[in-house]
Amino acid sequence: MSSRAESATRRALEAADGAAVELRIDRVACTGHGVCAAVLPRNIELDEWGYPIVRDPMVTAQDAATAIKLCPAMAIYRATP
Ligand code: SF4
Questions:
Q1: How does pLDDT run across 26-41, given as a tens digit for each residue?
Q2: CA–CA–CA angle 77, 42, 40 (5° rounding)
Q3: Is the CB of 21 under 6 A from ligand 1?
Q4: What is the pTM of this model?
Q5: What is the SS3 assignment for the chain?
Q6: Is 33 in the pocket of ligand 1 (CB under 6 A)?
Q7: Are 3 and 42 in contact (CB under 8 A)?
Q8: Quick one: which atom of ligand 1 is closest to the CA of 39?
Q9: Is the confidence at residue 5, as pLDDT, over 70?
Q10: What angle do CA 25, 30, 35 make, to 5 degrees?
Q11: How much is the average pLDDT of 44-68?
Q12: CATH 3.30.70.20 holds for 3-78
């Protein structure tokens, strides 16, 4: 996703609930369970092997917390500003 589109997404999320964070995935730690895509279907899809492709890293703080909590490999983290 382009930085322009990410900025638009960030502004929309901030307008919606006052919080927007950027998610990152540690590709070494990721084991391809696919929980992230189920939790964030608008932001993440899976490749043919079940590994995540992040289409839009900007999510609400609440969605970030849920994805981080549910990832069985602890491979999802918030980018530091
Ligand atoms: S839930 Fe975690 S381990 Fe599973 S695909 Fe997503 S990042 Fe990888």
A1: 999 999 989 999 999 9
A2: 40
A3: no
A4: 0.79
A5: CCHHHHHHHHHHHHHHHCCCEEEEECCCCCCCCCHHHHHCCCCEEECCCCCEEECCCEECHHHHHHHHHHCCCCCEEECCC
A6: yes
A7: no
A8: 1
A9: no
A10: 85
A11: 96
A12: yes
